[in-house]
Every structure is written in structure tokens, then in C-alpha cells.
Design brief:
Helix content is 42%, strand content 11%. By secondary structure, the chain is α/β, with parallel strands linked by helices. The chain folds into two domains: 174 residues, Rossmann fold, CATH 3.40.50; 86 residues, no CATH class. The protein has an eight-stranded mixed β-sheet with strand order 1-2-8-7-6-3-4-5. Helix 3 crosses helix 4. The longest helix has 25 residues. The chain is globular.
């Protein structure tokens, strides 16, 4: 049985580490025949999967598509207010770099970085929680119509989900596996948007998101809790995500990680190159652009000897 700590990691469970590329590969991955399912690390047959962890935004939900632009614009304003001589374009590029570098962590980490950037330029930063609240207000202005259209029924949930999401969730649920949803977005928003999208029945009470005290929550903590409470080994864990945090944590727990390199804006059915490279860099075993090839993927993952 796994202990309450991930192997080889001594940092506190709440700490979400910065991105660090650990995998460099020369061999060419292969695709499952006739699909866009890219096998990076061959997975042996007969793995007794029992628990399945899903990230939310970008992995299942597209409600928040476009969030980086909103965040960068807000941060650029805050840094310009310090009186820096940098141009708006220079600041915007700098903000985009660290926003995307920290993407996958809880939002508060990006706001902590913003406070550091303001301080470096001689400004007096706000509390990161204030920055986070301002960002959420701006984001709600941008995506509020999506949430309202789901609430009113004028939009269908599938219009705001990664393609094939319902089919994948139904197929996994039909296999009797325990399913968990873990997000870096605030828990209240995650639960509300999961409900609007019709996802709650798949996860029940196992919907986790960020809370105000970021030291009391992380995706790693969720994984540790899954393994501890169910008394299972990490090798029974299957994870899906478009962020490096969940991919890295699933791999460190000993599980199998499927990178969902979704093209959120274009919905092209092709993997987003930046996501693909980033997630392969932290050890993703399989890369998919969406869930349209679920039958082939599940047949591969659950095949027996």
C-alpha cells in the first residue's frame, strides 16, 4: 500500500513545483492505427486500473477558453501602474511568459508572481488574493455569456466540452472505476461549471478545486488522498490532463498519464504543439488531442495479456 507521500519527493504536499523538463526523446512515438492517439511510452497489458483522475479546464471544460489573454491584460495594467519605463508590449510579453510557464498550477501562484513583478519595479504590490479576485472579475466579464447560455439551456454542454468528453466519461464509468475531478480553478467555480456541463453525475462528491488557503490544497494532495483512502498502489491510477502539474504528479505516484493536448480555441482535432511538447517533457505516456478515439485508447489501456 502506498504511504501518504509520493515516492522521491520531500517537499510539502501543498507545494506545486515549477515546470522542469525531465524527458528528452529521440525515438519517434507511434500512433494507434487510424487514430490520433500517440503512444510515447508503451503501456504493458493487464494494468489493474481502479482510479481515474481528470483535470477540468482544457481537459474537459472549454468554458474558460481565452483565460490567458484576460490574465495578461490585467497584469500588464498593474505593472504599468508602477511607472516602469517598459513599453506595454514588453510587459505583456513578459507576463505571457510567466503566466504560461506557471499554467497548470493554482491561479494564486501566478498572482504571487505578479506581486513579485510589481515589487521588482519599485511598486507596492497588492495581496495576491486581491489580484486573483480582480482577475476572476475580468474573466467572468469575458466568459459570463457562456455560463449563462448553459444555465438557460440556449447552449448545449457539448458545445463547451473537449470533443468526445461525454463518451469517454461514460465509457470509464461503465467499467466501474472510481472517478475524480481536480482543478487549479477555485472549487466553487469548478463545482458550478461541472454541474452546468452535466459532469457532476460522473464524479459525485469527488470534485476538488483550489481554496483560499493554497497550502491546504493541491492536485498532489488529491492523488495522495485517493491512494490512502482506497488503500491502493499508485500503479492503479490513470490520469488525464492538459497541465504539467497533474501529469507530473500522476507519474510520480506510479500511474499512467494521458496528456490531453487540446486545441481549445480552434477545436481542430489536432494536438496543440505547445501543450504536446510541454506534457511530453514531464513524462506523459500518451498524447491525445481530444477524446474522439476513446474506443481505441481504452482498448489499448485495458487490454489483457
Amino acid at each position: 500500500m502506498r504511504t501518504d507521500k509520493l515516492p522521491g519527493v520531500t517537499s510539502p504536499s501543498f507545494l506545486e513545483e515549477d515546470y522542469s523538463r525531465t524527458e528528452r526523446r529521440d525515438a519517434r512515438p507511434r500512433f494507434l492505427p487510424g487514430t490520433s492517439v500517440e503512444i510515447i511510452n508503451e503501456i504493458g497489458p493487464g494494468i489493474p486500473f481502479k482510479d481515474v483522475l481528470f483535470d477540468f479546464d482544457g481537459t474537459l471544460s472549454l468554458v474558460r477558453e481565452g483565460w490567458p489573454q484576460v490574465m495578461v491584460a490585467m497584469m500588464t495594467e498593474e505593472i504599468l501602474a508602477t511607472g516602469t519605463r517598459e513599453s506595454p508590449d514588453e510587459i505583456s510579453r513578459s507576463c505571457l511568459e510567466f503566466v504560461m510557464r506557471l499554467a497548470g498550477k493554482q491561479t494564486i501562484y501566478q498572482m504571487i508572481q505578479l506581486a513579485d513583478e510589481v515589487r521588482k519595479r519599485g511598486g507596492k504590490p497588492r495581496d495576491p488574493l486581491e489580484y486573483k479576485a480582480k482577475y476572476h472579475d475580468r474573466l467572468m466579464e469575458k466568459i459570463g455569456y457562456r455560463r449563462e447560455s448553459l444555465r438557460s439551456g440556449s447552449a448545449k454542454p457539448k458545445d463547451h466540452l473537449v470533443a468526445g468528453a461525454f463518451g469517454m466519461l461514460s465509457a470509464i464509468s461503465g467499467r466501474g472505476l472510481r472517478m475524480y475531478l481536480a482543478s487549479g480553478t477555485d472549487q466553487d467555480y469548478v463545482r458550478e461549471e461541472a454541474s452546468l456541463l452535466g459532469l457532476t453525475p460522473y464524479f459525485g462528491d469527488h470534485v476538488y478545486g483550489a481554496i483560499e488557503d493554497y497550502t491546504k490544497y493541491s492536485k498532489r494532495m488529491v492523488i495522495e488522498r485517493i491512494l490512502r483512502e482506497n488503500g491502493v498502489d499508485g500503479s492503479s491510477l490513470l490520469g488525464f490532463g492538459d497541465g504539467y502539474v497533474e501529469i507530473m504528479n500522476v507519474k510520480r505516484a506510479g500511474g499512467v498519464a494521458v496528456a490531453v493536448a487540446s486545441d481549445e480555441a480552434g477545436r481542430s482535432g489536432e494536438p496543440d504543439p505547445w501543450k504536446r511538447d510541454r506534457l511530453m517533457g514531464v513524462g506523459a505516456d500518451i498524447v491525445i488531442p481530444d477524446f474522439m478515439a476513446k474506443d481505441a485508447l481504452l482498448a489499448y489501456l485495458f487490454r489483457q495479456e
